[in-house]
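Final report, Chapter 2: Outcomes

The project's central promise was a pipeline that accepts a single protein chain and returns its three-dimensional structure in a standardized token representation, suitable for archiving and comparison. That pipeline is now operational. To close this chapter, we reproduce one record exactly as it appears in the project archive, with the input sequence first and the structure output second.
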Amino acid sequence: MPAHRSRTTLVLAVAAVLTAGVAAPATAATPTPKSPVAVGFGGAVASIDADATAIGTRVLREGGNAVDAAVAVAAALGVTDPFSAGIGGGGFFVYYDAKTRRVHTLDGRETAPKTADENLFVENGKPLPFADAVTSGLSVGVPGTPATWAEALRKWGTRSLAKTLKPAEKLARDGFVVDQTFQTQIANNAARFSAFPSTRSLYLPGGAPPAPGTVFKNPDLAATYAQLERNGVDVLYHGPIGADIVKTVQKPPVDPASTLNVRPGKLTAGDLAAYDVIERRPTHTTYQGLDVYGMPAPSSGGLTVGEALNILENFDLKGASKADYLQYFLESTRFAFADRNRWIGDPAFVDVPARELLSQRFADSRACLISKDKAATSPVAPADPRHPASCTAGATAAPTPYEGENTTHLTVADKWGNVVAYTLTIEQEGGSGIVVPGRGFLLNNELTDFSFTPVTPGVPDPNLPGPGKRPRSSMAPTIVLDHGRPFFATGSPGGASIITTVLQVILGRLDRGLSLDEAIAAPRASQRNSAAAQVEQAFLDQDQGKLVADLKARGQGFSTTPAEIGAATGVERLRDGRWLAAAEPVRRGSGAAQVVWPANW
């Protein structure tokens, strides 16, 4: 996920009428209040964006429930955070129903065209260069986000899709104020954005990104939202918006003067018409006497977080020193990722041993391979969860392939106690780079989450492309219950590091004495079965470097990343009935948390 920014909302008319991609001085704008933490009553919203959070809070204040607010927030993020999410992408929606005390999930993951096979990204016998695959029609899966919104509202919402999308439509039409991060995101992608007139005219007006302090409008997206409001999502899956998507994928609108080789895809109207959002049984494990629910396959998030938690049940994390705690944490994900890479894919295509992966017996067989004093050597091999052999390592290693990181997560709770944790994405920063002409939204490159070729030669890979198949994801929207009632919910962007980020937030909150906002802010490390864990500089700087020196002495390796890891949000029900909403205080430009009625109201 790219860096995010504080925002301001346009509240007075701008003198000039703005067209797509044209900005004017923001002389009539008022900042939207933004705080990474809020406490109070009536419900809570946390996202990466101030305008989106404010829209969700307003929905709650007007009587909408958590599902209504979550969809409204997601639609607003499609306006203000278009390089991470939007109706051209997909995601996973986890919902706790306070009335029934049950957790439900919706799988809104993108699907491959019916023509796709294992060689989708193979050309002349070799896998395509990753960048070539990203910026192409080949990488575009059938979008699942609009169908997810409609299905969530139909099942559990109280508002119509039309009413729910209206605030985002207005935001797109009236505009928001550009900041440095928005400009930087465009600059990062200027070379490929400029290859498509539809993308260039929107995001590179006059040949350059909009300047900070100007107002950015997207009237094409506003019109697209309005069409969805009038006609429902059938206008995309069976109508003219879908026809435009198909045309764009099959004949990418490349500037003839561009030297970029943009390969066409084979997505069809039939692929769009066949799309279904799937309600799946959530993953479930217990930890410290609490119930932890997450997203099942084709996401690996719930299963991998759950396996790591089960492994960690073998160790006293509350009483451990910080170095011992981190040793156990890093080793738990090292082994859990090995198992994830070998066994998890789209359950319609591969036999995912979900129950066995979450069994305590299997976790115990992995935990006994973990030493407090010596790190395992990655890549470690997976084990067979159906036939766990205690303290026995597998034979063939399963390294973790690259996964795009440009995603967003939102968390919402309402006054009735309903909770939503929703992670959505278009994959890379800017997705495929292709704006659908006249529609104002970017198409995803989600199919690059598939393995281009088998990760380990001679070993079955559950994540190869296939017709109508959903690529494996690491998105991990998570809800934790205490005796059937909400305790807290969380999630994060960050590609494969989502899993380790969510696990760190859970452990920080439950084992290390941190509040939810402190757990979200804590320095991050992400060990994904590699020789060196990806870490932030703040992680390396802890205790003046002595902590990391201790871990290195145990064989841990570390690799710094210039970017932050994740951008989590969460909500927690406090003992006195108030809600706490929490978002990143620094990462990605900081997030935005609000409650309906602040505690001092």
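Archive annotation: The CA atoms of residues 72 and 164 lie 5 Å apart.
This record, like all others produced under the grant, will remain available to the consortium after the project formally closes.
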